[in-house]
Amino acid sequence: MARSESEARCSRSHRGTELAQIAALTDSGVAEFVQVSNVSRRYGHEMAARGALMAGIAKQLGHPRGVGGRVVGLALNRGNRAFVNAAVQELHADNDAVLADVGFGGGVGLRLLLDSVGSTGRVHGVEVSDTMLTQAARRYRRDIAVGRLTLHNGSLTRLPFADGALTGALTVNTIYFVPGLGEAFTELARVIAPSGRLVVGVADPEAMAKLPFTSHGFRLRPIPEVIDTLHSAGFTVQHRRINDSNGAPHLLICTAAPTQA
């Protein structure tokens, strides 16, 4: 039997309501998807910007340049003073010692080395960054003028010294930026006198790995690996931390290994 006109109108009205509800749900879903997409896009942009910032900081720490490099140098001086001072003390320098800070960064180690030797002692600073060299030349111009300090453009794998020229050397927070660690330690062994000392300062690798910028090019080697590489370069190594705190930096105090009879 055919439906009455009233039933047909009711049916059409019900279907119209269902369609309206479906349309409303669809619009809501599209709006929610667009909102989530916008949030994801903003998050992606923020993460990309953070990554670029951390990569820039890592680059400046490895090779300071320009105004940003000078700011990094000041931060390094404040943050590393106690670490560098501990390394200087382990050199046990005499008044007439010839010492070098390789990769001196902000230059706090140069002052500490100059204070550790007498008027007949000599200090050398080696650095790859022209910005740091210029800054140190200005800061220590009097010591340079009287011949107590000499600055050099160089690196751990290219040192401007004759064989056995140094009675002591330190390098602090530098080996993260060196691809060939064996080559660097062999070069350091070349320029240190048989009775001299080398002190390598290394931040704790586990603590460093938690910092947001070290994933951008830092080479965080386990301390036993660094010690083994020093042994291969001809050093005996004493290992200690600068204090008893968790994650304290490491000092690797090196002397020439005794020759086999």
Structural features, described:
The chain has 261 residues and is of the alpha/beta class. It folds into two domains: 1-62; 64-256, Rossmann fold. The chain has helices at 5-62, 66-89, 108-116, 130-139, 141-145, 181-191, 205-209, 223-232, and strands spanning 98-102, 122-127, 149-153, 166-172, 192-202, 235-241, 250-256. The radius of gyration is 31 Å and the shape is globular. The N and C termini lie far apart (119 Å).
What's the architecture of the largest domain in CATH terms? 3-Layer(aba) Sandwich
Task: Give a short account of the largest sheet.
Answer: 7 strands, mixed
The span between the termini is: 119 Å
Give me the CATH fold name of the largest domain: Rossmann fold
Q: What is the typical, i.e. mean, pLDDT?
A: 83
Q: How many structural domains in the coordinates?
A: 2
Q: Flag low-confidence runs.
A: none
Number of helical regions: 8
The global form is globular
SS class: alpha/beta
- Which H/E pattern describes the elements? HHEHEHHEEHEHHEE
Residue share in helices?
A: 40-55%
Tell me the number of strands: 7
The strand order across the widest sheet is: 3-2-1-4-5-7-6
Gyration radius (Cα, Å) is: 31 Å
- The CATH class of the largest domain, by name, is Alpha Beta
The share of residues in extended strands comes to 15-25%
Q: CATH superfamily membership of the largest domain, which one?
A: Vaccinia Virus protein VP39
